[in-house]
Structures are given as C-alpha cells and as structure tokens.
Amino acid sequence: MHMDSAPSSSPARVEGPTVDRVGIVASLICAVHCFAGAILASASSLGLLFADERIELTLAGIAAVVAAIALALGARAHRRIAPLLVGAAGLTGLVLARTPVGEQLGEAYVSVAGSVLLIVGHVLNLRAYRQPVAHLHAYVDN
Fold first, then answer.
1. Distance CA 66, CA 73 (A)
2. Predicted TM-score (pTM) of this structure
3. Which long-range contacts (CB under 8 A, 24 or more apart) does 81-88 make?
4. Longest dimension (CA), the chain
5. Per residue in 77-103, pLDDT tens?
6. Rounded distance between C-alpha atoms, residue 59 and residue 19, angstroms
C-alpha cells in the first residue's frame, strides 16, 4: 500500500497570537470575577462564591501562566519590550493583590488593575506581531 504522506509525529506548535487571545480571555475572566466579587460581597451571599480563595488563586494563576508564556513568545518573536513590561506590571499587580499591601490598597482593585494591565500587554503583543521586526543593523549601517 502506497502512502503519499506519512503522519507527522511532531507535536503541535503553539502560536504566540493564539496564546495572547487565550490570555486576554483569562485576564478578562479574572478581572470580571474580582470586580463582580467586590460588588456582590457587599450586596448578597453570592459574594461568598466569588470570595473563595481557591477560585481567585486558580483564575489569577491561569492568567499569570498564560501571560508569561505569551509575552515570552512575543518578545522572542518581535523583539519589542513594551508588551513584556506592561505584562510584567500586570503580573506584579496580581501578586501584590494577595499581599498585606494589596489588601490594604483593596485586593479587588489591585487585582482588576493587574488584569487590565495583562490585557493591555496581550493587545500590545498582538499588535507587535503584525509589525515588521526592527533589526539593529538597520540603525548601525546609517
């Protein structure tokens, strides 16, 4: 039996823009959860569901891991630092929210700010993928 093409045994390649889109969704879910939890906690017993520390850590953890992967892939591909810096600020916000300083500032506010910064970092990353890579020799040769 003749086969025109053999099945590929290489693993599927993860594309940076796809990871960024997943990261935007994960960060948005995290932000909505924190924002809604702050409102519902003061208004009803539904806030208890949103105040579950395991849910908060899971959502923040997923958003953080996806962001770290997406932003690292982006920095490697397009060599722009702005998405990485904004994303790092967002990751810092997510971590800071779970410290005594974050609690004093308002954990929900700091978490939402961190999530929004992650979203901005992902959007900047997606835009950078669409722009040509600037090469250092283009500036040195002139």
1. 11
2. 0.76
3. 82/124, 82/128, 83/121, 83/122, 83/124, 83/125, 83/128, 84/121, 85/121, 86/117, 86/120, 86/121, 86/124, 87/117, 87/118, 87/121, 87/122, 87/125, 88/121
4. 71
5. 998 999 999 999 999 999 999 899 988
6. 16
